[in-house]
Design a protein that fits this description.
single chain, alpha/beta, Rossmann fold, Dihydrodipicolinate Reductase, domain 2, seven-stranded parallel sheet, seven-stranded mixed sheet, 16 strands, globular
Length: 489
């Protein structure tokens, strides 16, 4: 989720092995352990798979490696620990309020935006502890200001979107400066551009560019990661398939809708991009090494019991599935396909078990694709004026009461190669797109800044699970979210 400028386990995260391997042979449920930490291997941009390795080994991507790391400034040489860019937007201000409450004593935090006066007004409402936070003036249209911002801090947290329009210059500045970065994007094309253009720079400097640190896609990414870690502890083999059933009460921000409009417009301008957005492995580090598992559709319509007998009601297409699933698959690949080379993942939305549930499910499954197509068509000329009138405005959001009354629950049913089954729940009280997104993004920024020894060695353009894994799970639990994994068979 973005804010436009008008805006049960602990231990180290699993790491990719140091050398690229071939696709592993199908495994028996022999004991698995997380791969040892290793720095990215020195390899060519596209490395051909080696000979088949023993079943216990994991394939690792080689396409996103850099031979030699350049020195990056140490953290204590930077002026700030965290800079929040976009503090005057709706979600940006929520994130600032969360940081004022959750940041450790002595944290060097700055607020950034286009207008110093507007940023100062936000700071004035954050309480006494934040009044000494610095104000940094930066503008997405002024690359020099972004370079200056990235060079002054250890971590940048940004809510300024749509990211495809406003975000790439900041990613580049952070990648070149060795500055860690977290955002709220749910834009496939933006993340693909970020990977293709700045991965090598980030690997060279050690920057961690962590996209999608809000409701897009923290619950999805950490839910599967937590299940994987528990399967290792239980020695139940690889993950073979997982379905996440999403239920929530909350709204989509104007920023999220603006991001969707931006991506739709890009596809209308260049129809070849439709193939990218439709590819289930669109964000893979090396598409050629991904398995061919046949069709993996993001559309759904069925009784919930078709997923698992314990589930009731109906499920339908989840609007965020076409993005979240790509993040989860990227995590699997960046970890050397630790979840399983043939792991299948999908997301659906629950519509309840009332008499109206099948009607709602059917309507959603039918209307959602039509609505997305209509949005794409309307991103032209007079159509944009219609969308501007009927859709939420960028930078706006619901009342505090509405935010407090929201909630979300992401329930995962996962099977392993040994026949084990897990139920994983990631849930929280509060509007997921606003209140809890601010919590997730805020904790991500704090983890990047203050939990260096607990983070994985993964650098470059990464995901929440591959960089922050266990430490972000611990932080979100401490912040009041539920993240639980139960073996049910």
């Amino acid at each position: 989720m973005t804010e436009p400028t008008a805006e049960p386990t602990t231990g180290p995260a699993a790491e990719p092995p140091a050398e690229p391997k071939a696709t592993p042979a199908k495994k028996t449920p022999a004991k698995r352990t997380p791969a040892k930490k290793a720095a990215p291997a020195a390899a060519a941009k596209k490395a051909a798979p080696a000979k088949k390795s023993a079943p216990a080994k994991k394939a690792a991507p080689a396409a996103e490696t850099q031979p030699k790391a350049e020195p990056k400034p140490k953290g204590n040489e930077r002026e700030f620990d965290v800079v929040l860019y976009g503090a005057t937007g709706f979600v940006g201000e929520l994130t600032a309020k969360y940081l004022a409450m959750a940041a450790p004593t002595g944290a060097r935090i700055a607020l950034a935006g286009r207008s110093a006066d507007k940023v100062a007004k936000v700071r004035a409402g954050l309480g006494a502890g934040a009044q000494d936070w610095a104000i940094v003036t930066a503008d997405a249209s002024d690359e020099k200001s972004l370079v200056d911002l990235a060079g002054r801090t250890r971590v940048v947290v940004t809510t300024v979107g749509p990211y495809a329009k406003y975000g790439l210059s900041l990613v580049e500045a952070c990648a070149r400066a060795g500055t860690h970065y977290a955002d709220l994007t749910g834009e496939v094309l933006f993340v693909r551009d970020s990977i293709d253009r700045f991965q090598e720079h980030a690997l060279a400097t050690g920057a961690r560019i962590v996209h999608s640190c809000g409701y897009d896609s923290v619950p999805s990414d950490l839910g599967v990661y937590a299940t994987y870690k528990q399967s290792i502890a239980d020695n139940t083999g690889e993950l073979t398939e997982s379905t996440m059933v999403a239920t929530a009460k909350g709204g989509f921000s104007g920023g999220t809708i603006a991001s969707g409009r931006g991506q739709a417009e890009a596809v209308m301008d260049d129809r070849s991009l439709m193939k990218v957005t439709a590819d289930p492995y669109a964000l893979s580090p090396d598409r050629a090494l991904e398995p061919d598992l046949g069709k993996q559709s993001d559309r759904a319509l069925s009784p919930a019991k078709s997923i698992d007998p314990s589930l009731t009601g109906w499920v339908t297409t989840f609007i965020m599935a076409s993005y979240n699933t790509r993040i989860v698959r990227r995590s699997n690949a960046l970890l050397g396909w630790a979840y399983g080379k043939d792991f299948r993942y999908r997301e659906v939305m629950g519509t309840g078990k009332t008499a109206a549930a099948p009607v709602i499910a059917t309507a959603t499954a039918g209307v959602l694709p039509v609505g997305l197509t209509l949005m794409a068509v309307l991103t032209r000329g007079w159509g944009n004026k219609i969308l501007d009138r009927v859709l939420p405005k960028p930078g706006t959001g619901p009342s505090q009461q509405t935010q407090d009354n929201g909630w979300f629950r992401s329930e995962f049913i996962t099977h392993t190669s040994s026949g084990a089954k897990y139920r994983t729940v990631v849930a929280g009280d509060g509007d997921p797109g606003y209140k809890l997104t601010a919590v997730m993004l805020g904790e991500s920024g704090l983890a990047l800044a203050f939990d260096e020894s607990k983070l994985s060695t993964v650098t470059g353009v990464a995901t929440p699970a591959t960089v922050m894994g266990d430490t972000l799970i611990d932080r979100l639990r401490a912040a009041g979210l539920t993240i639980s994994v139960e073996r049910v068979s």
